[in-house]
Amino acid sequence: MENEITLKRFIEVRRDLGYTQAEFATLLGVSNTTADIERGRTKLSGKIVVELFKQFKINPLWLFGDSEHKYLESSNTSVIPKVVTVDMSDNENMVLVNAKAAAGYPQNIQDVSWYQQLPAFDLPIPEFRNATYRGFQVEGDSMLPNLKPGEWVLAKAIEHIDDVSPNKIYVVVLQDAVLVKKVIKKPNSNNVTLVSLNESYPPYEIKPFQIQEIWQVNSKITFGVDATTETGLLRQLQESMEELKSQLKKD
Hints:
Layout: H1 4-17, H2 21-28, H3 35-38, H4 46-56, H5 60-63, E1 93-97, H6 99-104, H7 112-116, E2 120-122, H8 126-129, E3 133-137, E4 152-157, E5 169-174, E6 178-185, E7 192-195, E8 204-206, E9 211-221, H9 230-250
């Protein structure tokens, strides 16, 4: 019989992640359901322990009661941009990810050719030269009143999840979505809380390993009606750059 603490922790992982016994069994490559494992009838195999680590970063030592650290690599999760794009003269440029492209962004996060199809422009501002910036279009109304649906934000890449600050806004790239949110890391918690400014959206918790990239929003751009074409978009972008330049000097 498995040790009770291991079974308790195995059940805790499944419930925390929000899976039924059948769904969890499918993910872990177990036949039918995890019910027998949870009752202690079937052995928790090494293969399952490996899957729990590979998929969810669950620390095997924690599972067996020998460690209080549930997750391995939780603070070392890299949120650095997976692809950095450059222009013809090898200067880094800014890629614009509109709402439609954002739908495919998490799946194409390492695909250089996918990025090459997106509009990009050079940043003739020294402050931008040594940092990676990206433009994202805001979808939905969860960040009202600060950000309206369809507006754009210019955001700077963050290297580490510990670098987030509770009073800034971020673009958070999960495994299946691109969200604009406030990011709160509570002390003594493995989880990260994503908070909307619009109070009709409740905050929710995610695990650090679910985050692929984090971008800190530095400024927003409200494009006028003639920004439907790429040239209109880029022209207005250049204008808002001037505004951003003056904001950067204040920072």
